[in-house]
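Subgroup meeting minutes
Present: P.N., E.W., G.H.
Scribe: E.W.

1. P.N. recapped why we're keeping a running log of single-chain structure predictions: easier to compare across weeks, and new members can see raw inputs and outputs side by side.
2. G.H. added today's entry (238 aa).
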Amino acid sequence: TSYARSHSIARISATDMARIAAAGLNRIHIGMESAADEVLEFIKKGVDKQTQIVAGKKVKEAGIELSEYFMPGLGGTEFSRQNALETADALNQIDPDFIRIRTLAIPEQVELFADVQSGNFTPAGDLQMAEELLLLLNNLQGITSTVKSDHILNLFQEVEGRLPDDKEQITAPIRNFLALKPEEQLLYMVGRRTGIFSRLEDLYDAELLPHAEKARVAYRVTLDNVEDFAAEMMKRFI
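Output recorded in log:
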């Protein structure tokens, strides 16, 4: 297996990709992160939507398994909707074997943090990123990808399954979270961002719930500051 950039793959001929596959490379991981041109330009990704599509298709046509990564939150509050819809459109055209979720966090040492400080980038909070992820998933059509949420920064680790048959199962935790009362959403975010919870159903675990409530009190988390708290806690996992 190998990681690769879309820009690199797009420059390799179909013949050479076939030779690479014949030599034994059987899976490539591409950090698409977004296929919205506005987002790609802002983060200086060095690639546009069409190149992401060309590269993904080239990997698949060579007979190599493809894992594409999507990053909720990368468009901030301004381009959240575009981030979901344009990326879903690109993924629909590629039909990768895997779609892996990697939620955005912004440590102080990255350039994007300076954009936050200057006001050029407004981060999306957990609630908006959950809505963004649901929008992406709802707009995945005609593909057979396996969705994986295998990272500690993701709000829901149970958002997994094979499209199209498992779509209801994949999206259920997000839909259920968004249907909760604000106070319940807050408690889940505290539990998840402190590592107490790993899935939404942990919110109803009689042993785990008191630990989450204790953490909420200890960190003085309220509806007014929960998004800031979550962002700070996410930095600790990087």
